[in-house]
Structures are given as structure tokens and as C-alpha cells.
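dumping this here before i forget
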Amino acid sequence: MRPAAEAGGTHWAVPGDSRATRVGRFLRRTYLDEPPQFWSVLRDDTSLVGPLPERPGFTEALARSIPFYRLRLAGRPGLSGLKQIRVGYAATPDEHLDVLRHDLYYIKHRSLALNLVIMARTLGSVLGMKGR
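structure:
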């Protein structure tokens, strides 16, 4: 991000976001901004698959507008999840309602088979450079 990119407050990421530098756009598109998060997996703070946490400011706002939004926090956070392969980036409350549905489905039905499907589809997204 550019210096002082959020000086006026937090904003959703959008395609062609002017706050991102050329290097930042490349890192996001290729998902090369994600490997440092493996440290959290190694420290056992997160898992490979699970609901991806939202930034705290966004979580507060979404919890006020979407009933039961905080229930998605009941699952152990992960680097990838059903939301990432089905919804992608969410930048509106309506899109986050879809995120909530997918995260709650994952929490209820998590299994090794579902995790393997999610990891395989995530790998496909990474190799296809489908990030934003």
C-alpha cells in the first residue's frame, strides 16, 4: 500500500485499487502476500483451512448490520476457506452475508475431505493468479 493509504479510514479493497503500489498489486494477484501468514500456522495460531478473519474495524461494522455475523468467529481461523474459493473478495455487506453463509457451512461440515477440496481449489487459484 502507498504511505497513508488509509489516512481517511479503512476502505474495502477494490479491483484496480489506487492505494496499492505496482509491486503490491503483483503480490496480491499472485498471492505472494500470503506466505508470511504460514508463520501463524507454524505457531499454531491458525490452521490452513478455516474462516478467514476480517479486519477488526470491518468486523465491528458488519456485526452491526448482519445478524449473527460474529458466529463465523466460532471456527478456527485459516489461511484459506470455503469463502475464498466460492466468494472471493467481499467488499460490501451483501457480499459479506454470502461470506457468513459459506463460513457457517464450513464450520458445521468441516472434514478432511472438505479441507482437501478447499486446499486443491486454493492451489488452483494461486497457480492461476486469480487474486485481486
